[in-house]
Structure formats: C-alpha cells, structure tokens
Amino acid sequence: MHVDLILVAASALVGLLLGITGVGAGALMTPMLVLLFGVAPSAAISADLLATLVMRPVGAAVHWRRGTIRRDIVGPLSLGALPAAFLGTFVMHLMGTSGTAEVDLTRVLGAALVLGAAAMTARQLHVVPVWRERANRTALTVTVGAVGGFMVGLTSVGAGSLVMVLLVVLYPTLGTSELIGTDLAQSIPLALSASVGTLLFAHVDWNLTLAVVIGGVPAIFVGSLIATRANSPLIRHLMIGLVGLSGLKYLGLSIVLVGLAGLAALFVYALTTASRRRARNFEAASQ
User: What is the reported pTM?
Assistant: First the structure.
C-alpha cells in the first residue's frame, strides 16, 4: 500500500479540528479530499465514513473518561441513526458512479455543507429556538438521529453539524463539552452502520482510507483532550466559514465568487466582533 504523507498531514489537521469542535469529519474531510486532492466524491465519502469508524471512538473515549457524554441522549439518537445511515449508503449506491451521478452527488454534498454551515451559524448567533416540551423530546431525538444518520450515509456530512445544532434546540442546557462528547459517542454506531453499507454498496480506496486514519486518529485524541478543557470560538468560526465556502464550490460557484463570498463573510465577522466588543466595553463602563 502507498500512503500519501501530505494527505496524512492534512487528515491530521482535520482530525484535530474534529476533536476540538466536534465538527469536521464529513464537513471538512470530504471537501478536502475532493477539492484539494482530486478524489471522486463517492470515493471520498466512502473513505471518510470508514475512517470515522476508527477516529470517533478515540475522541469519544476521552470524553467518556471526563464524564462529558450524555448516555440518555446517545441511545435515542442511535436508534434513529442506525437504520437511516445504512439507508443513506444504499441511496448513494443507487445513484451510481457515472460522471452524471458524481455531479449529482457533488450537488447534494454542497447543499448539505451549506445547510450545515447555516445551522452552525444559527447556533453561534444564539438564534436557535429552544424546545421546552419534555414529553415529545425522546421521539424528536430519535428523529434527529435519523436525519443525521441519513445525511451521513449519503454524503458523510451531518453528524457534527446538523445533529449538534438540533441537539442544542432539544437540550439547551447541554454544555459545550457535553455536546461534543455526546455527538462523538452517538456517531460511533452511526459510523458502524454507514460503514457496513459502504462495504456492501461502494468501492473503497484502501490507500486513501489508511492515510486518513493514520493522520486523523492521533490528532482527534489530542483535539479531544483540548476540547474537554477549553473550546476556542475562533476555530469554530473558521470551520463554519470553510464548510460554507466548500458547499458553495460544490454547488457550482466559480473560484472568484467563492473568494468574494469568503471576503464578505470575513467583513461581516469583523464587524460583528467589533460590535460585540464595543457592547461589552460599554456594559463594563456602565457598571
């Protein structure tokens, strides 16, 4: 087997971000493989799903030792995710690997990334609604798992972006470490189901998968150790930008338009940050 050392290093960076923020495996790994290394979307998704099966348990083990996993939430999420993830890989298989199918899959992946970026932005801006009815919370948690599982099986995107935001809606009192730890834990059975479907229905590039695993596993361990102590907002903001811009590129926007969108996002981020800083300074001066 041939292992690309540059790919190993890039996978390590994504693994580190995944460990720190809980977002990154599908939302960054697959776009990195496709856009930077020229891997076909179907092959990138398959490699990402199989690598995730090895990477996420490492991060989850760190959170388990730190007591930041909500097992009462992991169960319902897994109940919905297990069949849905398998179904997602089957739908990807039905789409085929022809040129037209790869283009269609690219568009679906782009839409999933943009939706994930929008969901993460809503969470950062604290505009996510809160579900206050406890009676239907378990059933809704199963539904969240099913939605995330299907998206992961189809595009490898969803576990760390869509699911995390929906968890914030249902469980607003979850701390950041609990949110990341719970998401990492529920993604293990999800990844197992998706991996079974991938092995049955998809072509797997084992050299590619091995490179992602070698780089990602130690990095996610380090990132998870960092996440249980602190969580940098700047890193999460950068990831949201990368996820959104990757999605726009998948949807067919030119490099120029994607670059302009990136500059616009940086401008808005700078204005927002400055405005919040002034508000904090004014509040501090008033006290």
Answer: 0.68
